[in-house]
Amino acid sequence: MKAIFPLLASLPLVLALQAAPAAEPMANPQSLALVEQLGLQEADTPSRDYATWARPRKVAVLLPASWGAGRETLLAQVRAAAGGAEVVAFDGTSLEVLADADVVLGVCSPDVLEAAPRLRWLHSYSVGVERCTRFDGIDRHDFVLTNNQRVYGPDIAEHAIALMLALSRNLGAYGRAQRQGQWLEDAPQSMNVEGRTLLVLGLGGIGTEIARRAHALGMRVVATRNSSREGPDFVEQVGLPEEASTLAAKADFIVNALPLTDDTAGRIDRAFFAAAKPGARYISVGRGGTTDTPGLVDALQSGQIGGAGLDVTEPEPLPAGHPLWTMENVLITPHVAGRTDEARERAMVIAIENLRRYSLGEPLLSVVDLERGY
Questions:
Q1: Which one of the listed residues 267, 287, 346, 356 is annotated catalytic?
Q2: 177 lies in the same domain as 77
Q3: In what residue span(s) does the D-isomer specific 2-hydroxyacid dehydrogenase catalytic domain sit (predicted)?
Q4: Among this protein's residues, is 335 annotated catalytic?
């Protein structure tokens, strides 16, 4: 990790040096440019119109110790955006500071919600918020939830493309041979991705970035999305979720970028894999719970699915002895697709911009529908 966060450190000095608590935090042009670049959605309703809104009194910001020297820079930026509210940092190991916090920047979990009875607004650093939205006790908490949707799209998309190319070129087999000192000449035949068909399951922020990169590689891209049949020009066809199996029948590669909700849990099941094009490669970078893991194992063992690249699994982490660990046609990374310095910088810029908006009662970015789960 970089010692400082250049995107954050470049915020105007007028933010970092505000002395009067009553001074209104000013919009930062660089932050607003990032909002536009990522295509973040602004709420139709100003936050001051929410029944739960009030000017924040205490803001608790998660700053893990592993972030090192950059924590102090971030803390100063949060204070500048908080509109005079008290700002305290916590590292996630102890939640006592949340007892009287009305705003939390960090993660949304049952433990956090129970520790923050006065919570009015929580901004999640992550995109997936299923730990909150699928929590049985969520109805006991009246708060607004926002997340960092689209922020990690470029990073996760690159990781998905890397897994796809590694599978197409049998890099797993060559890596194993290298560790054994073998010059492997009889590995399975590699394949080009140019001219092949990619199915993106979940054409949201991450899925769109995956599709963009696949199209640039000369691939034919089709996709599914929950909201409509519309998509960018580089996606040839957009279907609804119930059409996923039909689209999979013609896809050489399938990338799962679905969020985990009640509707998507286990959606990519045995029936889906049976309907897929024989030998198709499957990549999962959304949430492991959307995939029926035993069904995937059977499809890989039978050859119906020709290989898998998994950044997320169910369960996570995989237990010792799980068959996926030792399958030669499977690549596994430990949920690290979005873990880059650049992604963290973008995530904190958006969190701080949303805090500025909330402190002034302005419309928030990326408000989560608690019923839909995203």
A1: 287
A2: no
A3: 96-368
A4: yes
| Whole-angstrom distance, CA of residue 307 vs CA of residue 309 | 7
Q: How far apart are CA 127 and CA 259, in angstroms?
A: 9
Strand partners, 90: 62
What is the rounded distance in angstroms from the CA atom of residue 352 to the CA atom of residue 105?
9
User: What residue type is assigned to position 298 of the chain?
Assistant: D
pLDDT at 329: 94
55, 169, 335, 339: the catalytic one is 335
User: Among the options 229, 316, 328, 372, which is catalytic?
Assistant: 316
Hey, is 268 helix, strand or coil? Answer: strand
What average pLDDT does the chain have?
91
What does the pLDDT read at residue 41?
93
Q: Does 339 qualify as catalytic in the annotation?
A: no
> 255 and 203, same structural domain?
yes
The values of phi and psi at residue 290, to 5°, are -80, -10
Domain-located, residue 235: yes
Closest CA to 288 of 269, 260, 307: 260
Residue percentage of the chain with pLDDT more than 90 = 81
The CB density around residue 89, as the number of other CB atoms within 10 Å, is 18
Distant-in-sequence, close-in-space partners of 347: CB < 8 Å, separation ≥ 6? 125, 148, 151, 152
CB 360 within 8 A of CB 83: yes
Residue 307's domain spans which residues?
Answer: 153-332
**Better-predicted residue by pLDDT, 170 or 68:** 170
Q: What percent of the chain has pLDDT over 70?
A: 94
- Its pTM stands at 0.86
Place of tokens 């920047």: 105
Return the ∠ at Cα 169 (arms to 208 and 209), rounded to 5°. Answer: 10
Q: Which residue has tokens 């599914």? A: 224
The amino acid occupying position 171 is L
Can you tell me the distance from the alpha carbon of 262 to that of 25, in angstroms, rounded to the nearest whole number? 39
CB 22 within 8 A of CB 55: no
The residues with which 237 forms a beta bridge, in sequence order, are 222
Please state, in angstroms and rounded to a whole number, the distance separating the CA atoms of residues 274 and 266: 15
**CATH classification at residue 16:** 3.40.50.720
Find, among 246, 293, 295, the residue nearest to 270 by Cα.
295
